[in-house]
Automatic annotation (TrEMBL):
Region annotation (Disordered) ranges: 306-341, 455-474
Keyword line: Glycoprotein, Hydrolase, Repeat, Signal
Database matches in SMART domains: Int_alpha (SM00191)
Pfam families the UniProt entry points to: FG-GAP
Cleaved signal peptide residues: 1-25
GO CC term (a single one): integrin complex
InterPro entries: FG-GAP, Int_alpha_beta-p, Integrin_alpha, Integrin_alpha_N
Membrane spanning stretches: none
Name of the protein this chain belongs to: VCBS repeat-containing protein
Molecular function GO terms recorded: hydrolase activity
Gene Ontology biological-process annotations: cell adhesion
Amino acid sequence: MRTRVLALALTGLVAPLALSVPAHAAPAAAPYDFNGDGRIDLAVGAPDATVGGRSEAGAVSVVYGGSAGLKTATRTLITQNTAGVPGAAEAGDAFGTAVASADLNKDGYADLLVGAPGEDVDGDTNDGMVVVVWGGRNGLSGARGVIDYWHEDKDRYGQSLAVGDLDHDGDLDVAIGSTGSLGLSFLNGPVTRSGAWQGASGSGVTDAYSPSYGVTSMSVGNVSAAWSTSLVVHGRKPGAGGSVTDLVVDPSIGNYSDWLQGLPAGTVSAIGDIDKDGYADIVVGNPAERSADPAGAKGGRVTVVYGGPAGKDTSREPLVLDQDTPGVPGGAETGDAFGGSVSLGDVDGDGFMDLAVGAPGEDAGAGAVTLLRGSASGLTTRQAAWFGQNTSGVPGTSEKGDRFGARVLLADHSGDRRAELTVAAPGEDAGDGAVWSLRGSAGGPVTAGALSFGPAATGVGTTGSPRFGTALNG
């Protein structure tokens, strides 16, 4: 049974609405463009970072984009000890476990949402917390804690995050994943710097989702032509079951029986129009072996579900790819975790979305990334490319346990309309973690001039194992 609770007006929780309207309205900024310069910035989560002597308190480093790509010299470090950020850095908070972004208050600067699912609230261990940090001309500053209406029904609030106009009213809403009987919360927009919250709704999603794991990952995009934003939700089945994935087509449907479309099971996803037909497609990554997940595969796999007018295009068979697929570099080996991370973006500037797939378990956990090209006929293995730390021009050396590819991102940090390939390896240097960025070009990512940086370059301490790069732009 699905459950849903509406909180449109709660006495004592919602005060009269007071909005501040900018004197001159600005076009909404793209997600992660925190300073409004038209370039996508990078948010790097290090939830195991020690802050103020508190182990695993967590931190987020934001590196701003520039004409040459990411610039570590222009950065902002955010922790719960940062002035204006609610709370305080405490052991186990795991601030930075999840990040998401949108121009929530429509002032022309993207804002940053950060999840701290280990936060203890009013004596409730691991109740969780979400913070919004505001963008501006000079980058990120100032923050506000995001309300949690139902503490008693959930834990680990903020373990996953997504933002979009989920109720089709023109305002951006926030989807927040947690564990417990209400594993998914929808916080109604608009979200502003001050004033009242607009209420929320919550759901256990379906009985197929284990409340012990809750909603572990989400992605958003315009999949259905009839709905501005759709949500892909990931979790696990109850008991020893494997992963489960659904497409939330319309969360406003009142009978709760028609708002989900089943997708191939997996742990992560990305949404984008691969074939440029006007409908967004969904890529689902499942890194699990069959022994751990009945929907898994040797070495892991990804599945592309093409979009259509009503969500999934049922006239096209999903495309299933693994490292034994002809044209995909490498070979499927147990533990590769191919599909452990996925991202869509246009690397070569041809107008078609390309796909980056992380395989952080490759070569005993050294890790690797595969890039596949988009085309008018969909995703293709032609011109597929493979990257690891032993690839010529990629800084560093491939070592066991690095987990290169644990997170991948295709985003235009330079403003040249070609996405950079950004890769995280949270296991690098015995758990310090590191990030790499390769420029896009007409021929795909290039390793010449590749950037690599670790936590120290962005202000994150290396006491303990910060696992810098556990989260990248969601």
